[in-house]
Structure formats: structure tokens, C-alpha cells
Amino acid sequence: MKLRHMIATAGLTLIFLGAAAADESRVQLSNGAGKDLVAANCVMCHSLDYIQMNSPFLDEKGWTAAMNKMVKVMGAPIKEEDQKTIIAYLVAQYGKK
Fold this sequence. Notes:
Blueprint: H1 2-22, H2 35-42, H3 49-54, H4 60-73, H5 80-94
Helix pairs in contact: 4-5
């Protein structure tokens, strides 16, 4: 029973990840300093539309907390020197107004 559950979970995960990757071409990030870093780093863990979905809610403090969670909790391999540039981009382009 456990093996079936693990196989089903793994299959659903692969389907979900495949669907997210397939839609990535439709997501267009706003132009600005740091856009390339955001595109290269954020898509490693989630779809770029996550940025646009969360933008109405996150200010600098919120984007910083999101970055810290991605790096410290989720293990995102984002270089420390790139984190400030990414946060600055997210605040400037997608920060809560």
C-alpha cells in the first residue's frame, strides 16, 4: 500500500512539474535590472507566475522573507550576492504599491 501511494505521488508530481514547465513561455517578466537573475534562479523551484500572483501582497519586507524561505527552508541554491539584486528587482517591479 505504501509503495502504491509513493508511486502515485511521484507520478502526480511529475505531471504537475511538466505542466508548470510547459506554461513557462507565456510568463513575461517586467524589464529591469536583475530580471535575468530572477528568471534564472526562481524558475529552478517554481513557475515564474508565482511572482506575479504574489506581487499584490508583498513589499520589500515580504519579498525578503520569501527569499529567505526559499534559500534557508527550501534549499534554493541562490548565491548570497545575487539575493539582494533579486529582491531589489522584485520590489521595484512587483512590490506592493
